[in-house]
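User: Fold this; tokens only.

Assistant: Input:
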Amino acid sequence: MLRALSFRAALVAVLVAFATGVIGSLALRPASQEIQQREVSVGQSARWRVPTAFGTHLPGLGENAPWVAGQIREASAGRLDLEIFEPGELVPAFSITDAVREGKVEAGYTWLGYDQGKLPVSVLFGAVPFGLEPWSFSAWWYEGGGQTLAREIYEPLGIHAMLCGVIGPETAGWFRFPLTGLEDVQGLKIRFAGLGGKVIQRLGASVTMLPGGEIFQALEKGAIDATEYSLPNVDERLGFGRVAAFNYFPGWHQPFTAMHLMIGTQAWESLSPSDQVLVATSCQAGVTHKLSQTEALQGPVLAGFADAGITALMLPEKLLTELERVSEEVLAEEALADADFARVLASQRAFSESYALWRRHAYPNR
């Protein structure tokens, strides 16, 4: 009897131990798999060379690329390092997208309007005369199909395009003499970028393209009579007001200016899914950071114009009306010549029409 009980107890102990071991191993297995998945999702270290089209000393405009790179570096504990290079240090300022496409660099931070000679539609992702405002462009990009269109256009080129900064309207330009009407544009030697350059050229101006670092010297030597470039605080840092004291508004040619982080497809796909989210989130933070910072900086700059001998003026109404009319002509011609240009422009205008209903009701004119 005692022997039978001992045997029975031993058998129960063995079964309990076996069951506990099996259950324990089953319980541990998902945790082990979760750890492995987490290790995979963290990804590997990566160091990208990232040329920028804007000098990093320029407040707001040039500071954003290093700021975004810093966010990515800190959030990844240093695993992802985007090394920012100054304009011309690795590749020419206007050739950044080409350098990414050709695999010379892993990524680049630029204004896509610089590529319009090779890819006409690119300029619509950078700035559109009399187009969307910065917040409505951001809404179109993230929620109105803009990002999808950009991916469809750039992915066949081996590039992952990511919105990574937006600023408000630029000035209409810095002039060595006041503008009284349309006749002052004829024969004007001016540095101008994007579609606005085509518009003002059609009105009789002689247009040239120069990187930001070369503009002051051209103005000082009289090689050009006027220039547009960026926001008042950026232009002030570049010294334009010292040689061209008439600063005109509004920035009809670029109501918004968008900057993009252009990433080579191979570099992008080498990132784990979680690291891709980290980069995308940092860029989206860069959009908010850049717009907030640059909007806050302009008022004090304008307030100091008088002491600096600078006159802020509005463009003559007749000239502004003519600029808008010719802008419509140029946009229509570009759309007829290029199917991608046509569908992106149509998408922006459809969004703008829908958004205008909300804007009229929500934001009274002041």
